[in-house]
Structure formats: C-alpha cells, structure tokens
Input
Amino acid sequence: MTSVQAPAASVDQSLQIAGRTFQSRLLVGTGKYKDFAETGAAIQASGAEIVTFAVRRANIGQDADAPNLLDVVSPDRYTLLPNTAGCYNARDAVRTCQLARELLDGHSLVKLEVLGDESTLYPNVVETLKSARELIDDGFDVMVYTSDDPIVAAELESMGACAVMPLGSLIGSGHGILNPYNLGLIVENARVPVLVDAGIGTASDAALAMEMGCAGVLMNSAIAHARQPVLMAQAMRKAIEAGREAFLAGRMPRKLQGEASSPNEGRIQA
Amino acid sequence: MQLYLNGEAQEFNVTTVAELVASLQLTGKRIAVERNEQIVPRSRHAETALEEFDRIEIVHAIGGG
Output
C-alpha cells in the first residue's frame, strides 16, 4: 500500500477548503435522523463545522410554520454545504447548485454528486466531470464526490475542484474503505484536500481514512443509522482525531517476526 | 393563470413571483425560486412578472448526506 508522509511538524495544521479554515476534519450530513432535535444533537456531538444538506421542492400547502432544517443548522454557526444528492445528470446538478446559491444568499461552496443508478448510487463520472467544469466556470467552489479512480481524481483537481471526495464504498452501505490501495494513490498524488465521502460504517473506518492521510471524512448514515446516533457522532469525532494524530505521529514499521518490548538483559534464568 | 408549480399544473390569481410566494405563505421563508429554469433572485421577486404556463420551482433545504 502507498504511504503518505505526514508533515514533520508535531502541531497539526487546520483543514483548509476554498480559503476557509476548519478545526474539525469530520463533515456530517443531515439526512435519516428521526427528528430535528436528534439531528442537532448529533451534529453538536460530532464537533463538525461543515454540514451538508439536500435541496428539494418545498412542500406547498403544508404547514407554513413547520420548522426548517436551516433553523436547526444555522448558517451563522456552521459552514453549510448544499449537495446535489439525487441528481443523475449534469444539468440537474448545475441547476441544484444554482438554487442552493440563491437559497443561501450567494454562498459558493457546494458538494457535487452526480449518481449513475438508483441501486448502487455509484457516481456517474462522465456527468460529474461535465458539471464540475460548468460549476467551476460559474464561480462555485466545488467539493466533488467521485469514484476511487486516481486518474479521475487528478482530472478533477486539475479542473479546479477545491476538494476531491472519493467513496470508500457505496453510499449508505457501511462497508468502509474497500480499496485502500486506490485511496492511497489518490491521497499521494493530490494537492487539494482528499476526503472520504461514502461508505463509512463505524469509527475504525473513519480512523483508517485519517491514518492514510485523508484530509477529512464526510458521513451521514454511519451516525444517523447507529442505534444511538449521538453516541456514534461522538465516537466519530474521536476516531477522526485519533486517526489524524496517528497519521501525524507516523506508524511503526510492520515486521514479519516478533520483537520483544522488554530488554533481554537481566532476565532470571534457571 | 395556470402555472406549473413544482411540476404540478395549478391555477393562481397572481401576477408576480412575490405575489405567488405570498399566496403560498412563503414570504420571508428560506426558499429559492426558479422560473423556466432560470433563478429568480430574492431581490427581484417583486418585479418578476409571471406568464401563463410558466414552470416555477420553489425549493428549500432538507436533511441529506
């Protein structure tokens, strides 16, 4: 597996995306929670500063005073990351981003995801590349969900994506990082932040991504579908921090044979 | 006039985007409006006239990952 060298400094640098600085390297979604109270509590426990949400048709004619997600996840407190979840072509993805920019009064940071089919939710890379180019040309700061193909990741970076976000495994699958070798190649070659954006199932998956040198991890189901979402959000915060520190610390070399930790000298012997 | 609001044909007695938004009790809410696939900025809701069979999308933020 490719290994990426951690920076020499023992003090970590902050995560930088599109000119903004973040202390937390955990990004969270807002879907699948039982209610807004749980959503808010989980986000708070996760320590996330970047929070993603979806854009959908408003429920016309329903209770106009019903609480809105943005009342719980305030744009004053969090960096909101509108996403194009559910888009299957470049045109819909671009429109969704334009609507999101209007919704958030000119906010330019978006998460682009263009899906290939409804059963796998695998990214449609052709439409992703096409819409990424349009959005970047239109002034958006685009964090791009993509496959774990290192060539596509490099292409997105050279196009001007502000972050490349390969899947660990299929969205919502909880299978973790299925191809760490590919992810390693992407991290090794990238000069923009690489974040794992799908497939995380539990804390060790998140820690592994960070140990491999990823700049961050974005997750939703792993927290929202845990038996206790708020507790899992807290676990994920710790896993991200532990994985990052392990990366910075630099792991010991793997050895084929055992090597005692205690000295051989001075043993009592018969 | 008839409008296609969020994909459904409906009859409205309004002339501008602002009036449509008000008739839906969405004034001041966190929404974004598109008319015939073009964004209508909040600042232009009042001056943007509607025409028969316009396709209007009104969206908001919901939970998602």
Q: What stands out?
A: The longest strand of chain A covers residues 50-57. The two ends of chain A are 45 Å apart (CA to CA). The first helix of chain A runs from residue 36 to 46. Chain A touches chain B through 39 residues (CB under 8 Å).
